[in-house]
Amino acid sequence: YVVQFADTHGNLSPFSNEVTGGTTDVPAADGATAIQRVAPNPFNPRARVTYSLAHAGPARLELFDAGGRRVRTLLAETQAAGAHAVTWDGTDDHGLRLASGTYILRLRCGGTTDLAPVQLIK
């Protein structure tokens, strides 16, 4: 499992495993593969996820529930280096609306992994 804590001011702790330092409001360093922003967060009904890729190649952006189960693949394709964005509508891979709660986004590309929390509220 991956764990991250937030205080009442929105300050986020480091993730509990192999992470490159995902956050929801701090842009990544130039040339980094990272989730840059999730907005709004918390969200309902849609959130825009912006991310950057350091290198062109196969990229995966997946969403996991609190139990560590993958519930949605937002992206699984080869992409160019640079800035990108996707929108998540709060549904799983089957188009079913997910419950309110905190989910973890995982971006993988070129051997780099970045994570960020996203909160769905109803």
Compact overview of the structure:
The chain is an all-beta fold and 122 residues long. Helix content is 0%, strand content 46%. It contains no helices and seven strands.
Task: Report what the structure shows.
By secondary structure, this protein is an all-beta fold. It has no helices and 7 strands. The strands form 2 sheets. Strands 4-3-6-7 form a 4-stranded antiparallel β-sheet, with no helix packed on it. Strand 1 and strand 2 form a beta hairpin. The chain is globular, with a radius of gyration of 13 Å. About 12% of the residues have low confidence.
Task: Please describe the topology of this protein.
Blueprint: E1 34-39, E2 47-53, E3 57-64, E4 70-79, E5 82-88, E6 101-109, E7 112-120
Antiparallel strand pairs: 1-2, 2-5, 3-4, 3-6, 6-7
Give descriptors for this structure.
122 residues, mainly beta, 3-stranded antiparallel beta sheet, 0% helix, globular
Given as residue ranges, the uncertain stretches (5+ residues, pLDDT < 50) are 15-29
Strand order of the largest sheet: 4-3-6-7
As a percent range, the share of strand residues is over 45%
Radius of gyration: 13 Å
Alpha-beta content class: mainly beta
| Helical segment count | 0
